[in-house]
Amino acid sequence: MKNLVIVSFPAKEGMLENLKETLKAALPETRSFDGCISVDTYIEDSTSTVHLIEDWESLDHQSKYLNWRIETGLLGVLEPLLEGGAAGLKAIVCGPKYENI
Q1: Which pLDDT score, from 0 to 100, does residue 66 have?
Q2: pTM of structure
Q3: Alpha carbons 54 and 28: distance in angstroms, whole number
Q4: Residues contacting residue 14 through CB under 8 Å, at least 6 positions apart
């Protein structure tokens, strides 16, 4: 991995299937966005949370992607599906792998 980003989407009760379908429709654009190397999806059933494990060429690419998603309104679409609304979304921007630790 070049630059690791982990994004967690906690679904409201009863909304996990809707969230999965929304992400299924949105993720092809994510995967084709400039600088995206890969996006893997994991579901934590016990908490109804979808986790995306993303690999980016640079954190600048990921930042541009996030700004694009905000501008194009995806957060507004996700808002009613997420526990805590858009504020419930959690992103961990790790960056590059460290070999010497």
Answers
A1: 94
A2: 0.94
A3: 13
A4: none
